[in-house]
Amino acid sequence: MITLKSRREIDEMKAAGKILADTHKELKKIIKPGITSWDLEVFTEEFLRKNGATPEQKGFEGYEYAICASINDEICHGFPRKQKLNQGDIITVDMVVNYHGALADSAWTYAVGEIPDDVKHLMDVTHKALYLGIEQAQVGARVGDIGHAIQTYVESENLAVVREFIGHGVGPTLHEKPDILHFGQAGKGPRLKEGMVITVEPMVNMGAWKAKMDDNGWTARTVDGSLSAQYEHTFAITKDGPEILTYQGEND
Fold first, then answer.
1. Domain Peptidase M24 spans what residues (predicted)?
2. Does the annotation place 105 within a ligand binding site?
3. 94 in a labelled binding site
4. Which of 1, 103, 130, 189 could form a disulfide with 144 if both were Cys (CB 3.0 to 4.6 A apart)?
């Protein structure tokens, strides 16, 4: 079922989104060669609790961590670990914040030190694809308009959009309808209505789009070992256009 949020509910989710955005801004300052994704896990949980929030995905369907930390060829749902990050790595940190019952969801890919130009291109294209998708989220548009805009742009840059993992509605629980594909046909799928709160979260690979699962049953990685990036925002559909609830500010 697709739930429509009131202005009060959206504002509550926006408060959760601000804490989440602040967390990402702090992570950006500390991610560098030699740090571990376990350090990021510990920092995030402490930062959230200090701000009166909790990590919603911890305990979700048995998941044990406050963040997903996906490194290099890991597409999503990577486990935090005590392995040091190296110069030239990329890492995607994904989390869901619960603040007094209101949820917000956002993922961001970070460079660890200096990275090659082709990896910068991957990150830049994925980031732009996020915003091209969000731009389509107007009252009366269809879900397929979002996916079509993302796929068309990404493939024009000779990169590939992951099919197996998608965006979704948010609140009152972590994953709600509608499903938000990052590929497909314009003019198809459910219509977007004022009051919907959804995520767009394109995952883009340098090689093939297909994923394979690790033995842990959670972590997905590229089938060919190519690098993968992801950016995600939670936003509300309003009569004035999409309102990003996890916006990080002018450097977003």
1. 12-239
2. yes
3. yes
4. 189
Nearest partner of 2 among 183, 165, 170, judged by Cα: 170
Number of Cα atoms under 13 Å in the Cβ half of residue 19? 28
pLDDT digits (tens, 9 = 90+) for 62-93: 999 999 999 999 999 999 999 999 999 999 99
* pLDDT for the residue 123: 98
Residues 6+ apart with CB under 8 A from 89: 33, 71, 72, 111, 112, 113
234-245 pLDDT tens trace: 999 999 999 999
Q: Do the annotations mark residue 41 as ligand-binding?
A: no
**128 three-state secondary structure:** helix
Do residues 27 and 44 make contact, with C-beta atoms less than 8 angstroms apart? yes
Asked if residue 233 belongs to a known ligand binding site, the reply is no
Q: Are 91 and 69 in contact (CB under 8 A)?
A: yes
